[in-house]
Structure to design on (265 residues):
């Protein structure tokens, strides 16, 4: 989903686990109406991407659509990367690989890693703060990949309603129940486990803003601020009343925050 408008910034939007570019459908026209170019991406085996998750060998392969989009951006174009939930890790990898292409990175209620620790530390912390019952009616499965058996998860409709879309419109919850696909956390991936992957020279050199969803029933405000504290210098914004899917529950407020961030980047 691409489009251009005026000579503004170029927002590249990255979805979370099991979701796709479709989850930005309300936000995209708002940003375009404000004069910006917007690209909402499907990561590999997500949204309408043709691959199956069992065909995705690594976190790098999963992130390839974003890495390619950032690399292809013309010189001088101001990129604002926005990662939601698990998408924060895709954004972090792009920042490390291509830091001079990125004017600002926005972590929307997202996994935000830090220099000196592996990217999976955010998911480990989430696991420590929750119980297996958190996932309710979600379906766990094992995928046969080229790297061997790997765990995957499909969000169940009760989990979506209670923990992710609890303050979002019923229509958007319904859309999600129709469109979510199996997702992987890649906690066993060598890149995700590499404590030297993210560096001060690259990842930490990019402006970072964390957007706290204040009423998230899955990522607590406390956990979101824990990630901010791990990366000194990170700016923080808040969206009151936002559930985990702030792009649905507080679309206009999210748009305003993103426009403000881009204006200061």
């Amino acid at each position: 989903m691409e489009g251009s408008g005026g000579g503004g910034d170029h927002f590249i939007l990255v979805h979370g686990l099991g979701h796709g570019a479709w989850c930005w459908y309300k936000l995209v026209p708002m940003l375009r109406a404000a004069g910006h170019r917007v690209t909402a991406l499907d990561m590999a085996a997500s949204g309408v991407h043709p691959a199956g998750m069992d065909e995705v060998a690594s976190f790098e392969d999963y992130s390839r659509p974003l890495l390619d989009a950032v690399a292809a951006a013309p010189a001088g174009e101001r990129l604002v990367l926005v990662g939601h939930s698990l998408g924060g890790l895709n954004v972090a990898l792009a920042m490390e690989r291509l830091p001079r292409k990125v004017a600002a990175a926005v972590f929307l209620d997202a996994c935000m890693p830090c220099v000196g620790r592996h990217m999976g530390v955010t998911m480990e912390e989430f696991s420590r703060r929750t119980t297996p019952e958190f996932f309710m009616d979600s379906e766990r499965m094992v995928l046969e990949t080229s790297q061997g058996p790997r765990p995957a998860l499909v969000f169940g409709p009760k989990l979506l309603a209670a923990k992710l879309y609890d303050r979002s419109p019923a229509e958007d919850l319904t859309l999600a129940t129709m469109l979510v696909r199996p997702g992987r956390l890649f906690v066993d991936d060598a890149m995700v486990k590499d404590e030297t992957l993210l560096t001060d020279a690259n990842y930490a050199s990019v402006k970072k803003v964390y957007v706290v969803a204040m009423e998230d029933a899955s990522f607590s405000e406390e956990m979101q601020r824990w990630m901010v504290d791990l990366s000194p210098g990170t700016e923080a914004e808040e969206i009151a009343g936002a559930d985990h899917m702030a792009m649905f529950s507080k679309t206009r407020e999210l748009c305003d925050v993103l426009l403000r961030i881009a204006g200061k980047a």
